[in-house]
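yo

u said u wanted the structure for the complex thing, so here. seqs first:
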Amino acid sequence: MEMNADGIIIVNTETVPGKTITETLGVVTGSTVRAKNVFKDIGAGLKNVVGGELKAYTELLGESRDEALQRMVAEAQARGGNAVVNVRFATSAVTAGAAELFAYGTAVILE
Amino acid sequence: MAIEALISILALFGIIAPILLIIIAGLIGGKIMKSMQKKLTEREQEIIQKYGKDTLSNLSMTAKREVSETGIVMASLVVGPNYWQQFVSKIQSLFGGTLNYYDQVIALGRNEAMQRLREAADTAGWDEVVNVRLETSKLTPMVSNKESSKAMELFAYGTGIRYS
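structre next:
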C-alpha cells in the first residue's frame, strides 16, 4: 500500500533514510471508530464455527485503518508538514461491536 | 400433547445443535488450518526465492546503502479459533497451562500477517521492510454478554525502503 500519492512520506522509523529533518511540527493523530455490520457479524459468526480467517472483519479493519491514516496525513498537511515519522498504530475496543483505530506520528518538514 | 412433543423436540435440538457444531468444527476446522499453513509455506518460499532472504526486519535501519524512497506498509487479518478449539481450550483452561489451540491459531495468523506484509511490500516495489512492528488485538462480540465470536486481529506494519 503506497501512501506517497499526495507527496507526504509516511514512515515508522525515527528518521527518513536519506533525508534530513529541518523542523518538527508536533504530534498529529487520526482516529476512526467503526462498528461492525450486523449482517456481516452473522456471517463471521458462522465462519467462526469452522475457524480460519474472518474476511469480513479483515476488510473492515483494513478500511478503517486506512481512514485513520488519511486523517493523520490531512492534519500533517494542514500544519504544513511534508512527512510523518515514527508512526504508531493502536486499536482499542471502545464498546461492544465497535473498535477504535488510531494512528499517530510526528509531522516534520524534510530538507 | 402435540405442543409438548414439539417443545421437547426443540429442547433436544437446543442441546444437540451445539454439540453437532463442535463435532463439525472438529472435522472441518483442522483441514482448513492445515491448508492455510500449506499455502503459507509455499508463499513464504516464493518470496525467499525472489529476494534471496527474508525481506522483513525489525531493526530501524539495516544496510548502509543509499536509500532513494520510503513509505509505510501495512497488512492485517482477523482469525478465530473454531468451535472445537474453543471447546477444548475451555476445558483446558480449567486446569491451566498451555492452551495449545490458541497457540496454533495465533501463531498461524501472525505468520500469515507477516507474509501479507512481505507481499504488500513486493507489490508496492519496496526492496526491504524495516522497523516491523506486530500488534494483536481482540475484537469484542456484538452482544457483550454473549461470547459469540472469539476473533482477534493480527496486524503488522513497517517502513518499506527502496535502494537507489
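Residues 129 and 160 of chain B are 4 Å apart (CA to CA). The longest strand of chain B covers residues 67-80.
cya
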